[in-house]
Specification:
It holds the Pfam family p450. This protein is of the alpha+beta class. The chain contains 17 helices and 10 strands.
Length: about 475
């Protein structure tokens, strides 16, 4: 088996492999360019790790779905454990503990169960509309607050205060620290030189040990405190429906299940909060750049929903252009462009190539959603690409942005509902356009992107204002109250 060649790819340098050929800011673009040279299946090496890149939907289906029994592990990084994030469902090895987490997520967030969160999701989105009304310049913060509030409510039944909430602050600190710790240059050096983890924190160059001690402390609080909140609310009889309260009250879980529930619920925030907020910000950028598309979606909303009420989930099937706009937002800039790396449990042969045991397997979601054959002029924002010649929507729902096979995203139904509700509600109420300078000229913007668990445009100057003159804050409040 080992005689078969590895898939083609760039020639690695001694020791470092291809580490310095990969763009640190846009690795998905490097991988896509390699795809053009070597084919959709590419092999490269970073230090000691073999990496297999899948640049097409066909390959992700063939390996991550049809051979999912062998492609559903995750690479194990020393830094996950060193920084106290070894419990996290995103990174768990393919085994019994991961299976138990998936079962708990399935109970809370499968398609039918996700319907129960919809009234809560609309109410958080409406709060975002009011916040945008008051201080539109803080739109990025309002989108993050909305996204955080939805996942804290769905997971713990907890209603965070909009600013400086103590539980959200703890969770955000832990996520910030782990994002820095998992930077490839830190994670791969620790993986390649595992003895470094035994260095004492006072040793020159071992400052990461101090960060690790701090991160373990904050992460332990992130796991314990919100869970404790839900348990006390259950005892007091005040618990709102949520993943934790529903599972605790439905089943008499034994201790190991309670620990798994604690760990799975603590994963949800990190997995959910940034990705939905980032998608809202991609939407703002798309509307800023394409007023004509924004107008077309708003005309559809006026026709179907009117101007006397806000859109509801029951309107969704009657708003095909909005649907296409949502799909195009997900396609144009998938906020988790490389998904999460899978890993092989055993070595494999695929189409004559050798794929070693333990190789990291990356599905390049960016390359899939920018495939020129399927999406001509992929960098153009064009919702029309989702319509068939007969004017009906096609069946391409952009499920690829939620990953593949047994490790696909457990929160996809909740995420899809939050994103739709946020986008349609903003379109119904606001117009997003270029801000003007003191001479009345449009202020142009060169988008910049920031990275974290998800990619997002950095906040830029734009004008978010009520779409028509009669829509003042009193009118908006009245429209929101009709939902309560
Ligand atoms: C726009 C929103 C979201 C996007 C784009 C997104 C995307 C993804 C992607 C690409 C993966 C990796 C899939 C793979 O390995 O093939 C993933 C995994 C995961 N997502 Fe999401 N996600 C979103 C929202 C959420 C939400 C709301 C939750 C809430 C619970 C969530 C929980 C998870 C978990 C727990 C995993 C790990 C699954 C596993 O390893 O078995 N995500 N997500």
């Amino acid at each position: 088996m080992a005689k078969m060649p590895m898939p083609p790819g760039p020639r690695p340098w001694p020791i470092v492999g291809n580490m310095f050929s990969i763009s640190p800011n846009e690795p998905w673009v490097t991988y896509m360019q390699w795809g053009k040279i070597y084919g959709d299946l590419v092999h490269c090496r970073v230090l000691t790790r073999d990496i297999i890149i899948l640049n097409s939907e066909r390959l992700t289906k063939a390996l991550l779905e049809r051979r999912s029994y062998n492609y559903s592990d995750r690479p194990q990084h020393i830094s996950n454990h060193l920084f106290g994030w070894g419990f996290n469902s995103l990174f768990l090895a393919y085994g019994d503990e991961w299976r138990l987490h998936r079962r708990l997520f399935h109970q809370a967030f499968r398609a039918e169960a996700s319907l129960t969160y919809r009234p809560m999701q609309l109410s958080k989105v409406h709060q975002m509309l009011l916040n945008l009304f008051e201080t539109p310049e803080d739109y990025s913060e309002h989108m993050q607050t909305c996204s955080t509030a939805i996942i804290m409510a769905a997971t713990y039944g907890y209603d965070p205060s909009p600013r400086h909430d103590p539980l959200v602050t703890i969770v955000e600190r832990s996520v910030d620290m782990i994002v820095k710790a998992l930077r490839p240059e830190v994670a791969s050096i620790l993986d390649a030189l595992p003895f470094l983890r035994h260095l004492p924190s006072w040793f020159p160059g071992a400052g990461f040990q101090r960060d690790a001690i701090e991160c373990r402390k904050v992460t332990a609080e992130m796991v314990e405190l919100p869970f404790k909140y839900t348990k006390s609310s259950l005892t007091a009889g005040t618990a709102a429906p949520s993943m934790v309260s529903d599972i605790l009250s439905r089943e008499k879980e034994d201790d190991s299940h309670e620990l798994a529930l604690k760990h799975a619920s603590a994963t949800a925030y990190g997995a959910a909060s940034e990705s939905s907020a980032s998608t809202f910000q991609v939407f703002v950028l798309a509307m800023f750049e394409h007023p004509e598309i924004q107008r077309k979606a708003q005309e559809e909303i006026d026709l179907v929903v009117g101007r006397d009420r806000l859109p509801d989930f029951s309107d969704r099937p009657s708003l095909p252009y909005v649907e296409a706009l949502v799909r195009e937002t997900l396609r144009w800039f998938p906020v988790v462009p490389l998904g999460l790396p899978h890993a092989t449990t055993e070595s494999d042969i695929f189409e004559g190539y050798y794929i070693p045991k333990g190789a990291l397997v990356i599905a390049n979601i960016w390359a899939i959603t920018h495939n020129e054959d399927k999406y001509p002029n992929p960098s153009e924002f064009r919702p029309e690409r989702f319509f068939l010649p007969d004017g009906k929507l096609n069946d391409d729902t952009m499920g690829v942005i939620f990953g593949f096979g047994r490790r696909n995203c457990v929160g996809r139904y909740v995420a899809d509902a939050s994103i739709w509700a946020g986008i349609v509600s903003m379109l119904a109420v606001f117009s997003i356009r270029k801000a003007k300078d003191e001479l009345g000229r449009d202020i142009e913007v060169e988008p910049e992107w920031s990275t974290g668990l998800a990619i997002r445009p950095r906040p830029f100057k734009c004008c978010i204002e009520p779409r028509y003159p009669e829509l003042d804050s009193e009118r908006l409040t009245q429209m929101i109250q009709t939902f309560c």
